[in-house]
Amino acid sequence: MPNFNQLITGPMKSLPHVAFTALLILTAVNTQAGNGQASVCAAAGVLTIYVVRHAEREIDGSRDPGLSEAGHDRARALGDLLADARLDAVHVTDFRRTIETVAQVLKRTGIEKTVWPVSWQSVADHARSLASEVCEQYRDHSVLVVGHSNTVAPLVRAFSGLEITALSERDYDHFYQIR
After folding, report:
1. Residue 14: DSSP 8-state
2. Which of 22, 35, 94, 120 is deepest in the core (most CB within 10 A)?
């Protein structure tokens, strides 16, 4: 595992076997970021949240595709990356691609996943609701949250109060650790 006491951006040369090219560590030390967005986890104690988008999906025209071969490779890499993370919980949406993304993590840890149905009303409200529950329920723990291209940035914002660039449909290699 890389040293999580520093901000690491760009290609992860120290982990060549891992299929994630960007690792960002965000430390939310204030209750508000510069944009005035408050973190819902401001009083959660020592909490580590890992946020990642699901791995590459199969292009099969369905509403709920599984992972492609590259996606399964990335899911195994996620399992390797988090092998020593001492996770206490894993939260996914009700789509196959998020569930398949965490298969190796669940197998290694023995944790049962918690499924959050996607709310199509407001992605920001969905992210705040999930973050609020996770921060309240898992104080002083480590939690993996797997989202989608349109939910990762709102999730990071809800957990940390910090703005990140929204992911594109081609971005599968971003991994965020929030403390």
Report:
1. T
2. 22
